[in-house]
């Protein structure tokens, strides 16, 4: 009888552990996806769709392929090496990890100010309150999540639930906007024009900076790493890209439906005008909810991942990582509340972000074939080639973008 009870208890614990593992893997995918889908993501998609119309479908298709190539490289090497991104970079070239961490954290901080601002604007649309008050409320919710005993599990649930809500809301607006589906499908395969700048910009916005490392670092923190877990990590990395891409596709079709009807989007807030024209007052409120969800989930992703790039530099940072994450959120909120969104900082961060991906992905590709880092693991050649193409393309765009921004900064 005692053995039966013991057996039942062990089975229950095993089942519980399996469910927790599955939630963590799903949460890591949604953490990455919702980190990518920030307030800037909404505006960017609306603007490109209005410019390229149905041909933007080709840009999305091409960027999905490149995003998957970049993310598969990063997540697999993080898993196999059991190292954070900065530690991998340091193993490739001593000191490189410090450079990578510096740019990741500075970029993450700058974008987090925009994320918290976007969330504040979302509450303004929904409830008519001052965006600064909305930003403070949003920050308080994020801090509450990281103060909880099971902060990792709470974060996983939060991004999963809110990410799912965002997909449903945008999906509804896409349906009521009645986009020309046949034209969109046709031009996705045979575009009228191919905008390489748009492709690389979308790739940088989806897997640039801290974003592509967010889910990989989450899995590492949860102990889901090693060559024996490569298949699960691979599935999670692809799923994360697909979730972000579904949001992009739904939003693209929603915008296409509106602009195809002859509506000119409001240049000051193109995404909001899409929702309002498609579904009236209800659509505008949906936009507020989507903007808030995009903002708060990106705040969570940016804070968590940015601090994870500092963990290995001092034991105290890892020991008090929650305090560092909370401080990161508080600082971003205070800057927005008292200074607004500092345009120069955001412009510079956007330009530098274009150079972060080739730097981080380049170090990952070098590590992928270094036995001291990955042991006997054999990295697929096609992934290396894919990654190398992305490094070259994003380096070119990053340098051009940075040079074009210089006159605006000085």
From TrEMBL:
It is found in: Membrane. InterPro entries: NRAMP_fam. Keywords: Membrane, Transmembrane, Transmembrane helix. Signal peptide: none annotated. It is a multi-pass membrane protein. It comes from the Bacteria. The chain crosses the membrane at residues 25-46, 52-70, 91-113, 125-147, 159-176, 196-215, 236-264, 284-310, 322-339, 345-368, 380-399. PANTHER family: SOLUTE CARRIER PROTEIN FAMILY 11 MEMBER (PTHR11706), TRANSPORTER PROTEIN (PTHR11706:SF2). This is Mn2+/Fe2+ NRAMP family transporter. It comes from Virgibacillus natechei.
């Amino acid at each position: 009888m005692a053995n039966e009870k013991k057996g039942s208890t062990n089975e229950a614990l095993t089942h519980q552990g399996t469910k927790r593992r599955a939630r963590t893997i799903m949460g890591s995918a949604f953490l990455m996806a919702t980190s990518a889908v920030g307030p800037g993501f909404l505006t960017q998609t609306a603007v490109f769709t209005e410019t390229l119309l149905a041909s933007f479908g080709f840009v999305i298709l091409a960027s999905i392929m490149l995003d998957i190539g970049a993310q598969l490289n990063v997540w697999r090497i993080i898993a196999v090496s059991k190292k954070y991104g900065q530690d991998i970079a340091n193993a490739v070239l001593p000191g490189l990890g410090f450079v990578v961490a510096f740019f990741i954290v500075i970029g993450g901080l700058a974008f987090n100010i925009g994320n918290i601002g976007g969330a504040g604007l979302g509450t303004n649309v929904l409830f008519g309150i001052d965006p600064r008050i909305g930003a403070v409320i949003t920050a308080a919710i994020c801090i509450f999540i990281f103060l909880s005993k099971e902060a990792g599990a709470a974060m996983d649930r939060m991004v999963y639930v809110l990410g799912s809500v965002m997909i449903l809301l945008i999906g509804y607006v896409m349906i009521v906007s009645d986009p020309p589906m046949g034209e969109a499908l046709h031009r996705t395969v045979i575009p009228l024009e191919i905008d390489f700048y748009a492709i690389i910009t979308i790739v940088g916005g989806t897997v640039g900076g801290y974003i592509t490392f967010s889910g990989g670092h989450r899995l590492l923190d949860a102990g889901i790493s090693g060559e024996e877990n490569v298949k699960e990590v691979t599935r999670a990395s692809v799923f994360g890209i697909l979730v972000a891409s579904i949001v992009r596709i739904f939003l693209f079709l929603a915008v296409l439906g509106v602009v195809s009807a002859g509506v000119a989007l409001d240049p000051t807030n193109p995404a909001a005008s899409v929702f309002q024209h498609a579904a009236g007052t209800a659509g505008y409120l949906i936009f507020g909810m989507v903007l808030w969800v995009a903002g708060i989930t990106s705040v969570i992703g940016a804070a968590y991942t940015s601090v994870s790039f500092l963990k290995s530099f001092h034991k105290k940072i890892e020991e008090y990582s929650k305090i560092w994450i909370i401080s990161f959120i508080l600082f971003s909120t205070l800057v927005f509340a008292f200074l607004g969104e500092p345009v120069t900082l955001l412009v510079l961060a956007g330009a530098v972000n274009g150079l972060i991906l080739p730097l981080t992905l380049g170090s990952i590709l070098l590590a992928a074939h270094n036995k001291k880092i990955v042991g006997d693991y054999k990295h697929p050649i096609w992934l290396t080639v894919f990654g190398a193409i992305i490094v070259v393309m994003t380096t070119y765009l990053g340098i051009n973008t940075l040079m074009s921004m210089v006159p605006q900064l000085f």
